[in-house]
């Protein structure tokens, strides 16, 4: 028979994906160097993002490539996330967590992640965004017999904070210091 010490494996939270974004704000050589940094870090080919509309004050035009991002899944995502949190000293703000159970943070220098500094490349900052999910979330995205994920099964802000504190022994601060 079932004992009380067993917990429901469907309630476990896991990292669905990690998105690394490096926004340069201009196309050209700096953007390709930022793409090379992301490729060094993840071993995957990054994707370029375009500006939605022209902002003359920033000097960008519509459809100009201004940033580069890459999506990482699986064990590699956890390993890169660990390195990113080590830079932040495992401290995040309450505002870093969204109501849907995802969280994000940014770092100022990519060399803190363990990549060797190259003077020809320069130093780039990047954003980390982590999407958390539970097993069974696929029912909302599959093609056949599609259904909805119930409210109790969705990851909330409190669930994400508790997962972060348990998994990484992290500290969540209420306000910025």
Describe, in plain words, how this protein is organized in 3D.
This protein has 177 residues and is of the alpha+beta class. Helices cover 22% and strands 23% of the residues. It contains 3 helices and 7 strands; from the N terminus they run E-H-E-E-H-E-E-E-H-E. The chain has a 5-stranded antiparallel β-sheet, covered by helices on one side. The chain has a two-stranded parallel ribbon with strand order 4-7. The longest helix is centred in the first third of the chain and has 14 residues. The relative contact order is 0.20. The model has no long low-confidence stretch (mean pLDDT 91).
Which key terms come to mind for this protein?
3 helices; two-stranded parallel ribbon; 5-stranded antiparallel β-sheet; alpha+beta; globular
In brief:
The protein has 177 residues and is α+β, with helices and mostly antiparallel strands. The chain has 3 helices and 7 strands, in the order βαββαβββαβ.
Characterize the main sheet.
5 strands, antiparallel
Strand content: 15-25%
Q: Mean of the pLDDT scores?
A: 91
Instruction: State Rg.
Output: 19 Å
Count of helical stretches? 3
Biggest sheet strand order reads 2-3-1-6-5
Helix content: 10-25%
Distance between the termini: 51 Å
Q: List the secondary-structure elements in sequence, H or E.
A: EHEEHEEEHE
Main structural class: alpha+beta
Number of strands: 7
**Overall outline:** globular
Query: Low-confidence stretches at least 5 residues in length (pLDDT < 50)?
Result: none
Outline the fold blueprint.
Elements: E1 14-23, H1 29-42, E2 47-50, E3 65-72, H2 75-87, E4 91-93, E5 103-107, E6 126-133, H3 157-168, E7 171-173
Parallel strand pairs: 4-7
Antiparallel strand pairs: 1-3, 1-6, 2-3, 5-6
């Amino acid at each position: 028979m079932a004992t009380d010490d067993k917990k429901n494996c469907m309630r476990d939270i896991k990292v669905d994906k990690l998105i690394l974004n490096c926004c340069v704000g201009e196309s050209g050589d700096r953007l390709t160097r930022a793409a090379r940094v992301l490729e060094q870090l993840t071993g995957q080919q990054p994707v370029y993002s375009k500006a939605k509309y022209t902002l003359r004050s920033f000097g960008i035009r519509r459809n100009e490539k201004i940033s580069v991002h890459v999506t990482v899944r699986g064990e590699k995502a956890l390993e890169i996330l660990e390195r990113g949190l080590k830079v932040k000293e495992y401290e995040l703000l309450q505002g870093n967590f969204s109501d849907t159970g995802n969280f994000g943070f940014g770092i100022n220098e990519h060399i803190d992640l363990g990549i060797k500094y190259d003077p020809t490349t320069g130093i780039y900052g990047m954003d980390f965004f982590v999407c958390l999910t539970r097993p069974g979330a696929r029912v909302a995205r599959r093609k056949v017999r599609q259904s909805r994920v119930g409210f109790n099964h969705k990851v909330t802000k409190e669930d994400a904070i508790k997962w972060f504190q348990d998994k990484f022994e992290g500290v969540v601060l209420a306000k910025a210091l």
